[in-house]
Amino acid sequence: MKLLRVGPIGGEQPAILDSEGRLRDISDVVPDISSNYLTTLITDLNNANISRFPVLDSKLRVGPCIADVGKLVCIGLNYADHAEEAGIPPPGEPIVFFKATSAICGPNDSLQIPNSSAKTDWEIELGVVIGRTVKNISESEALDAIFGYCVANDFSERFDQLERGGQWAKGKSHDSFAPIGPWLVTKDEIDTPQKLSLRLSVNGIQFQNGNTSNMIFGVKYLVSYVSQFMTLRPGDIILTGTPSGVGMGQVPPHFLKEGDVVTSIIEGLGKQCQVCRNIDYLL
Question: Which CATH architecture does the domain made up of 72-279 adopt?
Answer without folding.
Answer: Alpha-Beta Complex (3.90)
